[in-house]
Specification:
The protein is α+β, with helices and mostly antiparallel strands and 266 residues long. The chain contains three helices and eleven strands. A nine-stranded antiparallel sheet has the order 10-3-4-7-6-9-2-1-11.
């Protein structure tokens, strides 16, 4: 009888241990499933966040709503974007015809903060651009406008001017093309006067940039029209560049506020 009772107790103990092991095994399985589910949810959340960031950070700004401007690298060039894109290869109604400047050379002066900069525009190499900027000069459009942007880096030095409201935005009612007289090698020597634009060759506007050092710009989207050159007073632009850029950046508003007092061409 004693042996029987002992055997029964041992059997019950074995059953209890087996049940405990089974319960532990089941709990471990449940824990693994729970951990796997949490991990899957975390991965899904991370994926959603990554997609959102990709869409908000890496998607280019719509050229119909914001200006695209140059950064001091050889991969992005000066380009004001209009608030409304013009039809492809169509100039705005008020843009002058290229033949008003074809074969002509216009010389004159651009006054920046009271300091004269001699300029020359080439209507033979860039008749459409020369016609536009001769018209803008004659109408007094540039008077009181600002040079809102300065970029200074190795192989990249530009002062950009002529924005309608001084904020770098383009004028959606004044868009034109095509790109003319753009260098195949992407080299814009110091003293070059070129036309800023957005991401199409018919998104030129009223903005221009002056290179104050030899500058290299990409040509893969069509390049930037060289409309003329500085004939004297490049040191005026050098001095503005020497004043630095706000926040000590390499691309932004110049620390020295720059106003166009006048722009006259003969």
């Amino acid at each position: 009888m004693v042996n029987t009772n002992k055997s029964n107790r041992e059997a019950k103990a074995r059953v209890a241990r087996m049940q405990a092991n089974q319960a532990l095994h089941q709990e471990q399985q449940l824990r693994r499933k729970r951990d796997n589910l949490i991990a899957a949810i975390a991965i899904a959340v991370a994926l959603v966040v990554a997609i959102v960031l990709a869409l908000t950070v890496f998607t280019p700004k719509d050229s119909a709503s914001a200006e695209t401007e140059p950064t001091p690298t050889a991969t992005v060039a000066p380009s004001p974007a209009p608030t409304t894109a013009a039809p492809a290869e169509t100039n705005s109604p008020t843009v002058p015809k290229a033949d008003t400047a074809a074969g002509k050379t216009f010389t004159g002066s651009l006054s920046l903060n009271g300091q004269p900069v001699g300029v020359s525009l080439d209507g033979t190499a860039a008749p459409q651009a020369a016609a536009v900027f001769k018209s803008l000069a004659d109408s007094g459009f540039m008077t009181g406008k600002s040079c809102h942007r300065l970029a200074d880096a190795p192989d990249f030095g530009v002062l950009q001017c002529g924005s309608l409201n001084g904020d770098g935005q383009g004028d959606p009612s004044y868009l034109w093309g095509p790109v003319e007289n753009t260098p195949a090698d992407g080299k814009y020597p110091a003293g070059t006067i070129a036309v800023a634009r957005a991401n199409t060759t018919f998104s030129n506007g009223t903005q221009f940039f002056i290179t104050f050092k030899d500058t290299v710009l990409p040509q893969d989207t069509g390049g930037y029209t060289i409309v003329g050159k500085v004939t004297s007073g490049l040191d005026v632009v050098d001095a503005i560049a020497g004043g630095g850029i706000e926040a000590d950046a390499t691309d932004g508003a110049p620390k020295t506020k720059v106003t166009i007092d006048s722009f006259k061409l003969d």
